[in-house]
Design goal:
Layout lengths: L4 H9 L1 H5 L5 H13 L5 E5 L5 H8 L3 E6 L2 H8 L4 E5 L11 E7 L10 H11 E12 L4 E3 L5 E3 L3 H10 L3 E11 L5 E10 L1
Parallel strand pairs: 1-2, 1-4, 2-3, 4-5
Antiparallel strand pairs: 5-9, 6-7, 8-9
The structure holds S-adenosylmethionine (SAM).
Length: 197
């Protein structure tokens, strides 16, 4: 399954605008928590990295920082960050075996269709070392829809995410919820979960 072309074209066109969005306090805190859970000097992946803001932070913290995204323009920005190795790829191309100490998927997997989430979580579990850390950020709700910019979204209820993570062998460590205004100018509820493989 290829990345959704309309979604990726929005990110290609709005790369600078997205880069200029500031990180919220909650994002800053959960990034620091993720780093504290991963072993010092470990190898991490920013999965659907956008402009690579988090990948850059991971590199600054002394982690080996990998990042990928389907958007060519986003990958250019992520690659320009010191210490970040970034490449262009879709979620469905991602394959690794017990390689990563941590995988960070912040508001990226919500662009995959619901029918693919089980397969993608399974690939993430395989890519993590035993006890590896996984962060998953999603928008809360139900169904699938396009926003006013044309981006495709799948929305999840908290219980549904809990079931998915458990089924794929992840242990829920902690979560935060919130509501923020995104690139489309509307406010949306979200959940971010830290779990252990
Ligand atoms: C909301 S942004 C999040 C970016 C980054 N994780 C952050 O939190 O700043 C979603 C990213 O997912 C990427 N994306 C969407 N569909 C994708 C796919 N099928 N494969 C890889 N990346 C994809 C987009 O290009 C975009 O950069």
């Amino acid at each position: 399954m290829k990345p959704d072309a309309a979604t990726v074209s929005v990110y290609d066109a709005k790369t600078q605008e997205y880069k200029n969005l500031s990180k919220t306090d909650k994002e800053v805190k959960v990034e620091a928590k993720f780093v504290s859970l991963v072993k010092p000097g470990g190898t991490v992946l920013d999965y659907g990295c956008g402009p690579g803001r988090t990948a850059g932070y991971f590199a600054q913290k002394g982690l080996v920082s990998h990042a990928f995204d389907a958007s060519e323009e986003m990958v250019k920005l992520a690659s320009a960050r010191e210490g970040v190795q970034a490449w262009q790829a879709g979620f469905h191309d991602f394959e690794a075996t017990q390689f990563y100490d941590g995988i960070w998927a912040s508001f990226s997997l919500l662009h995959a269709p619901r029918r693919d989430i089980a397969m993608l979580l399974s690939a993430i579990k395989t890519a993590l070392k035993p006890e590896g850390i996984f962060y998953l950020g999603l928008k809360l709700g139900s169904g699938e829809a396009r926003d006013s910019l044309g981006r495709f979204y799948t929305y999840y209820e908290q219980d549904e995410v809990a079931d998915l993570l458990k089924t794929h062998g992840f242990t829920w460590l902690s979560h935060k919820t919130g509501e923020d205004v995104g690139l489309d100018g509307t406010s949306a509820a979200w959940i971010g979960i830290l779990s252990r493989a």
